[in-house]
Amino acid sequence: MGACWSNCIKSVSSSGTGVDSRSRSRNGNNFSSSRVSSASISQTPRSEGEIWQSSNLKTFTFSELKTATRNFSPDTVLGAGGFGSVFKGWIDEHSLTATKPGTGIVTAVKRLNKEGFQGHKEWLAEINYLGQLHHPNLVKLIGYCLEDEHRLLVYEFMAWGSMENHLFRRGSYFPPLPWGIRMKVALGAAKGLAFLHNAKTQVIYRDFKTSNILLDSNYNTKLSDFGLARDGPTGDRSHVSTRVMGTYGYAAPEYLATGHLTAKSDIYSFGVVLLEMLSGRRAVDKNRPSREHNLVDWAKP
């Protein structure tokens, strides 16, 4: 699978912006030998000392975010995943302080589910990457809350939700996307990956999939969810050795087989997403005949 979409990503790599100051979706099931144990990590009190210094992130209190989301009302839920639920919240445009619902600007507030599969480690990775990396094709992290057992993240609001919704949950709210929009989304995602791969300290995204590709009101692409991201290999190393983590159907077979992580692992996932966008089929779909469960296996012949 590689050369075609590898070249697509390489072709946009020279246009990325610089890095500041730092040298359970329906698509498939998240997996990892360390995922379940990470839920217990969230019970351990941690300090802000683990968070890299970043002057552009706002520190919110839990009380503020309760106010901003109407006490995390079910009416404000935007979605849910391995991390927990995401709520619509409101903040003042200038001071960034939480405001009453309906006033100020809309944000997305992600709240860690203490019983979930992702814990403090992923929450911290999200802050430390998105707090330092800035690019038009990465979702903007506005701030966070670390108070007692509460861990929350506050992002810019993405009006058109995820690419997954547009591909697989069609209806009056998610009409089919024209081919021009699909290609715009694919190019934006490629630019986001190219920026990560060519950063001063390379970043491997490790969980590229349609549910992590968000769209703003103009269908501009923003990559989200950096909980599984890792720094790439340094020096003369060709790869990073890790426990296998990611999402079935998107993870590169050589990574699954060896645990050797490289930027090419992301490029494989990018190819799977392109197949989804072109075919309208999910990466993994157990509702289809057995020979068609895995999109890549079905598409190869």
TrEMBL record:
Enzyme class: transferase
Places the protein is found: Cell membrane
InterPro entries in the record: Kinase-like_dom_sf (IPR011009), Plant_Ser_Thr_Prot_Kinase (IPR050823), Prot_kinase_dom (IPR000719), Protein_kinase_ATP_BS (IPR017441), Ser-Thr/Tyr_kinase_cat_dom (IPR001245), Ser/Thr_kinase_AS (IPR008271)
UniProt region (Disordered), positions on chain: 12-48
Protein name stated in the entry: non-specific serine/threonine protein kinase
Binding site for ATP: K110
E.C. numbers: 2.7.11.1
Residue ranges of domain Protein kinase in the record: 72-301
Regions of compositional bias (Low complexity) in chain numbering: 26-42
Keywords: ATP-binding, Cell membrane, Kinase, Membrane, Nucleotide-binding, Serine/threonine-protein kinase, Transferase
Main location: membrane
